[in-house]
Amino acid sequence: MFSTSLSLAALALAFVAPSAVNAHGYIHNYEIDGKNYSGWLPFTDPYLSPIPSRIERNIPDDGPVLDVTSPDLACNKGGETGAKSVAPVTAGSQITFDWQEWPADHLGPVSTYMAACNGDCVSFDATKAKWFKIDAAGYNDKVWASTQLIDNGFKWTSTIPSELKAGEYLVRHEIVALHDAGQPQFYPSCAQVKVSGSGTQVPSGASLVSIPGLYTGFTFPDIWDDNFKSFTIPGPAVAFTGSSSGSEQSDPAPSSTHASSTHAPTSSAASHAASSTQVHTSAVTSAQESATPAAASSVHTSSTVAASKPSSTGTGRCSSKRSRRRGMVKRHVSHLAKRHH
């Protein structure tokens, strides 16, 4: 009996450990116009019967897209195909992206884009989209936007421009993690919404960008370098700046004006990072797109820690060559307090 219990415990740890150590992140829930919608839950939704109808396009897991030239950069792998549902939203209202967890050392910018589906989003191919930026934040007052997201309970809130013409749109939300110097990690997700209101404007010209193409010619910095002091947000200027909710967290870069997101920090920059462990269980209930998600029960604990250069997780996605990493760790540790507090 004792050996059987040990075997079961070891088996449970074998399943839990990869989730705890290698966890990255994805959007678990959307609050749109005051109503909750579950995101696509890649570790549970594919195994439910029937497969739930979501407003978010499928993502394969919690890992990143690494190739800036890949079509997967738009809406993640598999995201070129439409989801089954579309969420109604009023122009001028807010949409909140709830990640529920994000590694504190995965520092980087956060942005939200939209693209007109030119009809029905369910059948719209995301690789044909032309995107416009509705908010973005990078590195301001020595604090990364990803840290602001963590401090705000792993949430980020954007405003649908009040001037925007009614119709169906994709909303693309993304964190770019820059902890692995020379290999930025992109975490995009796309939700489908139907905008209503009296707006008549549609962005055009320089306000639009193709994805892939957004990061063409852009070099992400080595954030651990001693000379790193500022970050220019890539991409076009924010469209419809008149609809800004007044966030002051966007970088004062020529390519980016005031963001329309709200993400006020809830803790000081000196203790801004949190490490998280989330354990998914097999107890699952199906959540339809109009319900508060309960697709997977979880145990979630967090503690405040200082952000530091990560060690290898063994996945191959969060580590560059060992020689480069070893050479950078000593330099980072000596400047951690100066540059990240």
Keywords:
single chain, disordered C terminus, globular, 341 residues, 23% strand, alpha+beta, disordered N terminus
| Topology order in helix (H) and strand (E) letters | HEEHEEEEEEHEEEEEEH
Tell me the major beta sheet: 5 strands, antiparallel
Percent of residues in helical segments? Answer: 10-25%
Q: Which of globular, elongated, flat, extended, rod-shaped describes the shape? A: globular
Q: Which parts are unreliable, with pLDDT below 50 for 5 consecutive residues or more? A: 1-21, 243-306, 311-316, 320-341
Global mean pLDDT: 77
> Please, how many helices?
4
Ends distance: 51 Å
Radius of gyration: 20 Å
Percent in strands: 15-25%
Strand line-up across the major sheet: 2-1-4-9-12
Number of strands: 14
Structural class determined from secondary elements = alpha+beta
